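> Could you send the AT5G12370 protein prediction when you get a chance?

Sure thing. Input:
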Amino acid sequence: MTERIRARGPRSSSVNSVPLILDIEDFKGDFSFDALFGNLVNDLLPSFLDEEADSGDGHGNIAGVDGLTNGHLRGQSAPLSSAPFFPEVDGLLSLFKDACKELVDLRKQVDGRLNTLKKEVSTQDSKHRKTLTEIEKGVDGLFESFARLDGRISSVGQTAAKIGDHLQSADAQRETASQTIDLIKYLMEFNGSPGDLMELSALFSDDSRVAEAASIAQKLRSFAEEDIGRQGASTAAGNATPGRGLEVAVANLQDYCNELGNRLLSRFDAASQRRDLSTMSECAKILSQFNRGTSAMQHYVATRPMFIDVEVMNSDIRLVLGDHGSQPSPSNVARGLSALFKEITDTVRKEAATITAVFPTPNEVMAILVQRVLEQRVTGILDKILAKPSLMSPPPVQEGGLLLVCRYLFISLLSFFIVELV
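Output:
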């Protein structure tokens, strides 16, 4: 701001000096009134400033000069001066008047510009308010459109879901119809010549589709047997004329199921020798469709080494009775029975792990296994120990009589149950 005012040139001390030209830019930024005032009067009061500086150094008194209240100085012994001491007063007054006039003009300019800006702001504010109102209406319209669109999307989604359900139902019906057609075709094949299984579809001879073939054969056999039953009831009531039914199909299906069961049992035995539990489980699952898998369960139990190995029975006898020709004491027999039952229990537990991994109904297989153990191994060893008593000829009293028989029986049963509980 100082440089801008000085750029206008020095001010004259004449009363009729050229008026100031103040600029609005002088009042922008860090405005300082002292700086503005100093820049206005510096050109008119250079000597005064110097004297003021000197008087400051002399503590306000220069060469014994006293200050008067009318603004003039006089010496203590000198006469009064005829010239004014502060001749720049008139120039300063003129300068201040011009400055005030220009400041008023600047204020008017600023006020005018402010009014113009207010009008422009008001106009723009009205436009913006109008625009915002229109935007709000547009947004409301968009929300309504989105709501309608969401409703239509929901409606379309529900319709699509219904169509999907219908299509799924239709597909299920089509699949059922296709399966029914195939079953009828297979049934006609089995209802051909009695005992003729050579003209069947490749499905029934494909080893890789044994499970599917077994399932279809069971369905066909159940349907054929039900049809024969209905025909028999109608014929007995006199409501139908006897004719050819599905007897041939039932017979052929029974032969096929027997043949398929034998194939599966052979595969099951081969897998059992290899300890291939996965193949054994697959065969057992398929065989469970034939008479609930009873044949597979009984076949598995019957082929256990402890039931078919003669050496196992001889080992049981030696463990309980000792060497041939010796007469064991009851205590030795009891210890032998305990050891035998423990060995049987360990074997059954090992078999239980395999049965659980292979058969879909392990409890039924375990029941058959335990029953076979009791009937063959336990009963067999008891028959060797005990002579069949007779009321007509009981054992001699010195040998213990009937009490000895009951004691052996009690010891054997008690030992077996103790081992089972442990």
